[in-house]
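Annotators were shown the component list below and the corresponding predicted structure, then asked to write short factual statements about the assembly.
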Amino acid sequence: MLRPLLSRDRVLLQGQPFVTWGRRVQPNECLDVIATSGGLVRLGRLDDVLARELKSVDRLLLAETPTQEIIAFLARCGALWKNEEYARRRLFVRHLSAALGYSSGMAEAEADLIGSLLSAHWRMHDVLNVELSSPHLLDRWIAREDCEVRAFPRGLVVHLLPGNVPLSSVVSILRAILTRNVSIAKVAAGDPVTALALALSFMDVDADHPVTRSVSVAYWPKDDPLGAELVAAADAVCVWGGSEAIRWAQTHTSPESPLLPFGPKRSLALVGRPTDIEHAAIGLAHDVCVYEQRACFSIHQAFVERPVEPFVQALHAALRRYDRILPRTIRSEDELAGANLERLTHQFMGSDVHSAGTWATIACPPDRVRALPGARTLFIHPVDDVGEAFVWVDREVQTVAAAPWGLLLTHRDELARRGAARFVELGLANLFRLGGTHDAMQPMAGLVRLVATEAPSQVHGKGMVLALDQTELLEHRRLRDLIL
Amino acid sequence: MTEITAAAATSQEPGEDRPLRAGALLTTCHPRHWTQTQVFDYTTEMALAAEDLGYDCVWVLEHHFTPYGLCPNTFSMAGYLLGRTSRIRVGSAIAVAPLEHPVRIAEQVCLLDQLSHGRFIAGFGRGHFPKDFEAFGIDPAESAIRLQEWVAILKQACCKRTIGWDSALIKLPDAVPFPEPFTKPHPPIYTVAGSPSTVEWAASLGLPMLMSITVQLETLRSSVELYNETARAFGHDPSHVEHVVAIIAHVADSAETAYDELIDNLVWWNQEGRDAALTIDMLRQLPNYRYHYTEIQAAIHRGDRDLNAGVRRMMDRSAVGTPDQCIERLRTIREATGIRNFAFGFEGVLDRDRILDTMRRFASEVLPYA
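Structure shown to annotators:
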């Protein structure tokens, strides 16, 4: 649907620049796009010159920068982000509020998370260890059985970033940096703020540092041929978003390059008989309110074992508390209209709708749910046993959050077989714990090439009792003795 | 949710068409090979040369108890220089506002404004040297709020013609201050703005900022962006605000020569400043200096606490080198920050003749082309 041009005074952000390999660029052409908040944002548009510049990068620019130097640089940047007296952070908070409709509290919390993520140097070592088997696999050859293995960057990673969860944009770019790739981050119209703020903060730390020069941030509209060319030229593509975005990326990504899709997913909660109902309720309220149900891990449906009334009462109190902790974001008219329509429809259908203005719970059987409207709308499905939820679990389910946590130990095998990718305690849906997976992947493994140097013939190797002379073995028909 | 609605014109930076304005910083720093009298004589010569060479402004600095700068009173010094000149503007960059009585500030600013027919620029900061606070009996924890209130009293004295004030810091009677300002509604007021909180305060009042090249250009730009957004929110048009950026300036026949001529002197001068400034332990105890505390932390992480490396980085960001390199550097700063008003620190060579020569070369070989 093409909207009429909105008046200029509704443009919330003007003249957002691009970053090309550590250099701020003001594009010649601009577009007005509608951000998540429903307001207009004026973004630069990719043109031939910029596209050529983006493609002409040295793809191994970061390849020889030691991991410890990369992590130290990121930590320095994180220290800036953690400081409320950092101008870029203040601009980020303002711009995030404008583009995503965040309250200042939510935007400040997001800035804190970015600061923590960037400065979590120990965690970065651990993540490399988990996903690549060693934090040093990009630094040197690591002995592994009869081989020495080393990881090399794939080269150019194009990120088609999400518009719903700012932190995800940072995570996507960080993964590429830690694996020493160079990145073109294509921002979503919904969040044109986060990736740009990150790249500019790199320039604040050191404009000439290889990490700074390894990141570009740009925008192009849907189906833009120059954008498609960049995706086709990528050595790996990370795409976040709905099925349409992922299909587009699949169409244009080179067959030789891995495509890492994040989304589209939905998440749900299982509530058994927790010993601490208030704790479980506040956990569910958190998982409903954080990111305004726009994230893959946001909870939209909760299967609650009967009797549900005590839990629902505690949940309503918790949702009221979250009105204060994370004040509701400004929502677009579309989003509000969709949520109100669902609430009214369910009232008409006889569901038990409890609407408090800023949030709503709708108690109904799961087969009555037609859409998940978001805007802090939670469907509560009373069940005799949480096992009744299984039939509603498929490969579109990312996170299953449970209270008590022990429920997961009982049901995780069945839920995983049906397609669920991640199990967490209620209240922790947005925290991806160390060692975990993301949409059933370990993404950093997809961003490197694993190269092996195999041992020479003098090395028998494990399981061998003969020297590795294949000619000799063939001549004497001793191949059966080659491997024991 | 996020469709494209319309194409728009290329955005233009505010004030892109304004000409460059050049000023000279008069630090009154005192190296051992100069007497104190020579420091002031040379400073006066620089101011007179700046006027003759067409510079727009000279800036005088306030310091106490340190050879980092011998001028303890910018108003007196400005008054002298305004009296010796007829065209050039003279600014304080800065007067340490919290150390003075606000009514004295208002009276002196208006007096200089009257005497010079509007050639005085009142630049203020909150102070950064512990001995100053100790000697004048001021709590450094109050420095920011004192600066803000004192500036508000100055503006009120000029615009509303009363000094009446009632706050936790000071109570002033409802009295009419004299003289009234020559410049209406008030003489130009600048403020040092390093921390985002100060940037936002300055922007809320539409006061231009005095900045320095001690940070990355992108950081400088982010401060200007934060200023612009805040100013707009308070109804000020930021395109009419002339911020000033202070940079080192030195011309030689090669960049290497230029660097070599400055490095030892600048390391000495910065060391004097560092020795006199609030220490990291003091800053840690002062929430209103959190920005400065974290800046020092960041400098340690970058390795910039090694003064030699830090000074070199500062020269990299400044106009130091051949005339062409200086031109290029000024253009880069203008493009990156939108700032067109420079306060040049010519004194790094610490040689009277070379300083005056650099000012001449800058005026003829750099500024017309930057």
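Statements collected:
1. The radius of gyration of chain A is 25 Å.
2. Residues 353 and 461 of chain A are 68 Å apart (CA to CA).
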